[in-house]
Amino acid sequence: MTKFKINIGMENDADFPVTTDESIVANEPSVTEEPTATEEPTVTEEPTVTEAPAATEAPEAIPESSVEGSPEPTPEPVAEEFFMEGAESAESEMIDMVESSDEIDSSVDEIDDASNDVDTLTNYVDLAASTVESGGMDETTAQAVTIGTENIYNRLGVKRSALIPATEHFSDKTTRLGATKVAIEDIKEKINQVQNAILTADASAANKISNFVGSFATVNGRLLSRAKGLKEKASKLVSLAAKEETVSFSSMKNLIDTDGKVNPATLITALKQNAKVIEQLARTAEYLAVYYKENTGTIKAIDDPVHFDKIEIFDLGKGFKAEGVAEDGVGNFVSDKLPGGRVVKIISATDKAAKGKEAILATAKSGMTVTDSITASSQTAPCLTGKQMQDVAEQVENISIANEKANAALRRLNDARSIFRNYFKSNNRNLSYLTDNESVTRANAVSKLSNGTSRVASQLSTVLGKIGTDSAKAALDYIEKSMSQYK
Questions:
Q1: For a disulfide at 197, which of 8, 314, 349, 385, Cβ 3.0-4.6 Å?
Q2: For residues 196 and 428, is the Cβ–Cβ distance under 8 A?
């Protein structure tokens, strides 16, 4: 398990920049002193590579504004050269993009570890609370709770309150109940500290996504320029014959082969599918942005069970193929096979009838990954014809267009996520002041909703980084390898 590295001390409110949205926080106290945003422009429909149903009918568009206070990134100007010099330039920028993606993954791991600690601490609260009616924890139970919580506190760098009674207080029936109540309140306070630290880590992850979005835009712009240039050059080779029937490859072949070999026709089909999956990721990001917006007010559900019981699932699997049978309201979904044999795999809530706590707990389990490329068994591939070069370059263009749409959706998602996080921080009541078990249950569930959707928002970025550029670049390298046989 990754050590949770974030600081759980008092957070500075400056860590939580916010874009105020009147439609979300109407009649609620402002999170910051910043002026209220102007009315949101309606986001027009962007052209897609393939026709597909929208992931959701959003009542309002999410503003395509800057993320975490950063200016909206734009691709760098690109020179007309589109041969290996351009490829090497894109290579260094791809390294920066991959590093940003790795940093996002690290933040997700830390948040997941801390969220698990919150779950464990909550279980200790429930255990201790279950003994109140019978007079409080006995010495054996108190020792178990003490040891379990101290293990977590030591890992997180948290100090137990000096007011916590010694274990012997739990052996005396006259002091047991009071000692138990003090222990419960201390654990609740620590849960609140960890949750606030998670929100700080989430803000950090959002800034890393902002950096990723900028790097991704630059890399994608270079890929698009290179694809257009190669497509134009390939048009002059259609009537010519190659000197050799095959070309040799290095490790890049792993990113464009299927079943251990490269087949031009199969590659073109896989590239088409790659663009479709990226478009679906764009729709998913838009859908999650709307979900954030619609559920920003769920923080009020801690005190409003009627509102709480209306919360619905987030259907992350929409647009992907179901794999196997769903269990406990959660199912597995996959994409079609992508270049390199990759597959996007998804865990998603599936029971659309679920509401409230049931819906939140299922949504909190959501996640998204992409399998590694398959190692190629052969280091040669058929030399592309001029027409095949044109077709491959065209599919890379389509991937790049889909990337632009997905990147814009990620910016809007990150903005909506910031609003949700800041509203949550402002309204997240200290669990020490929640005295009834039902309120504590709702508070913990809303925390799970925040942490679970945060994970998905981050994973959308890392999956896009893995399938949005490297296979496309390898396909363009394949075109250039083939072109060398026509000189």
A1: 8
A2: yes
60: Cβ contacts below 8 Å, ≥ 6 apart? 23, 40, 290, 293
In which residue are the tokens 């990150």 written?
Answer: 414
**Terminal Cα distance for the chain, rounded:** 54
**Using CA atoms, how far apart are residues 349 and 450, in angstroms rounded to an integer?**
15
Tell me which residue has tokens 């609370």.
129
pLDDT of residue 193: 83
Selection from 138, 121, 247 nearest residue 185 by Cα: 121
Q: What is the pLDDT of residue 156?
A: 79
pLDDT at 255: 84
Edge-to-edge strands of the sheet including 367-370?
Answer: 321-327, 330-334, 344-349, 367-370
- In sequence order, which residues have a C-beta less than 8 Å from that of residue 211 and are 6 or more positions away? 100, 103
Rounded to an integer, what distance in angstroms lies between the CA atom of residue 422 and that of residue 32?
9
Distance set, CA 473 to CA 276, 346, 392 (Å): 17, 25, 11
**What 3-state DSSP class applies to 388?**
helix
CA angle 137-431-196, nearest 5°? 125
Domain coordinates in residue numbering, the chain: 80-108+202-486
Amino acid sitting at position 466: K
pLDDT value at residue 54: 41
pLDDT beneath 70: ranges in the chain: 1-96, 98, 100, 162-163, 250-252, 297-304, 375-377, 427-437, 439-440
